Each structure stands twice: as structure tokens, then as C-alpha cells.
Amino acid sequence: MSKDTGRLTSFKRKELGASQVGTLVLGHGFVSPNEILQMAVDEHNGIPIEGLDNPKMEAGRELEDAIASMFSNEIARQGKKDHSLKLQKKATVVELANGKLGSSVDRVLSFAGSMLDITDSNGENVCLNAIDSKGLIAQYPVEIKNYSGLPTDPVSPHHEYQLQQQMYCGNHQGGFIVRLVRGWELQFFYYKANAEMQNEIVNAGTDFWNRFDGVLEGKDFWYDPVDTKEASKIYKGNKDKEVVNMDSETSLKPLIEKFVKARDEEKLAKIRKDEASLEIKMLMKEVELASHKGYVLRHTTSKRQKTKMIKIPDEFTETRVFTIKEMKEND
Q1: 122 with 28: CB under 8 angstroms?
Q2: Most buried of 14, 72, 102, 317 (most Cβ within 10 A)?
Q3: Residue 297 class from Cβ within 10 Å (0-12 exposed, 13-18 middle, 19+ buried)?
Q4: What's the whole-model pTM score?
Q5: C-beta neighbour count of 299 within 10 angstroms
């Protein structure tokens, strides 16, 4: 059973918002699954989440009303003047076994009469019923995007999963993704509820809250790190400097050899690169910008203000350093 909880979803209430679920299902996105998990843990612990007010997101919020108005005008232009495009003031959530899925929809479309017959930006004819199977006024969630890519770009699968979660939480049979491309071209796309995608969403949400509970209990329930930098953030050091014998880890030796080989190749590549760079600079001398048979060469001059670092008492930045070296007899 779904219930309203307020306009925005909250990790503190164990509500996984629709904007994050695509990353969890697909395993990648603007942030990683572990970054979403870390945000949930931080919010649970009362640590403010940073990076939620970047300029693009702020612009999107400011433009939301204008994009909704443009979409409404397009529906009217296609002959359906008697329609409603309302802001949904409350988020809707669905209970999972160990948490919740949440949905905060930008707008909800409904209309009078029997059918809505329009053509979307894919050229697809969309015929929608005004009344749902329960005899109630049918509602169609509308997800609004301020899009900076190309008009020919396909809709992001992350946005499709976002809309599918909104349909799942609100028990809707269809919905729209509406985007304003590069500030002027309105595009809108209709999607039906997809049971397979919604099942993936439920599984991803259940897995997410299992991991969340495990991390709070101090267990290694993190997602696989997306890169080596993230691995150093996830796996906190135990501060123990005693050597731990890991000879029983049979998969470790070939990985060490792979790392050492790549490191040595990297060193040689840097030497070759520096040698070539030196000779090029000796040929260019004072020239800052040159071209040569399809290549542009730059050796430009730049200037920046000198700064002095000041230590802040009792505040530290903690990092982990990773190295591999051959053991010697006295190690």
C-alpha cells in the first residue's frame, strides 16, 4: 500500500528516490552506487549531503514551470485543450521488505473526455484513456528535464528507470519524459509501465537497503568499487601496521604481477614521452602555438596567483596510499 510522505523523499526515512534507482540498476551514472549508499549513511548520521545544488540542477528547478507550460501548450496545440498538468505536492512511497521506494513527480497529467490522442517526439501516436480501470480519473506522471545534450540523443535509460519508479509508486499505467533541449527545443516521450523494469527497481531497492543496514552494522556490504580511487574510500584502514600474510590468496600473485608490469611500462612510457617533449620544445623554442601536418602543438604561458597553505588545528584529510614493492631479506 502506498502513502504520501511529503514533497521530497528522504534517506533518513529510508526512502530511495526515483532519481537514484537507475544508477543502482545499471551500475553506473553521474555518481556511483557507492556514492549513493554513502549519501544515505551520511544523512542517517546527520551529515549534510553536498553537491545537490549544482548550477545545472538549480537551472532545471527554475525552468520547471516554463517547461511544464510549454508541454501544456503543445498538448493544446494538438487539439486537447481540456487537460490539467498539476504539480504533485507530496511524494508517494511503496514499502519494501526493509525500506521504501519513493517518488516525487514533477507534474501529473489528467484530462477530460474519453481519449487523449497526440503524437510524441518519436513520431509515435499516443492514445490515452481519461478514466482508469477502477473508474477514476487517469493520471500520468510527467518527469521534466533541462537537457544540455543534442536533440538527436536518445532518452537516458536512467530517466526511463526514474519514470518507471514513479509509475510503480503511484500505480500509473503510463507517463511522459519531457525535456527542453539546449534551452529551446521541447521534446516529449511516452512510456508504458514496464513490469520487467519495475521488478529490477524493486530488487535494486531491496538490495540497497540490505547494504545500508549492513554498512551501519559495520559489515562490508558496499557495492564493488567502480575504480581504484573509490576502493580506497570504501575500505577504511584498520591503522594496524603489522604485516598480514596473504599467501593463501591464490588470485593475488597474478594481480601483483599485472600491477608491477603496468607500473614499469608506465615509467618507461613517461621517459619516452619526456624525451619526445624535450626535443619538440627545443624545436618550438619561444613559439606557443604551432601546427604540423594535422596536429596542433601548444606550449602556452599561463599565470596563477601564489597561495600559502595554512594548517587548520584538529582538522585532517585522511587518504590511503597504495604501493607494491618486492620484499627484501631485512623487510
Answers
A1: no
A2: 102
A3: middle
A4: 0.81
A5: 14
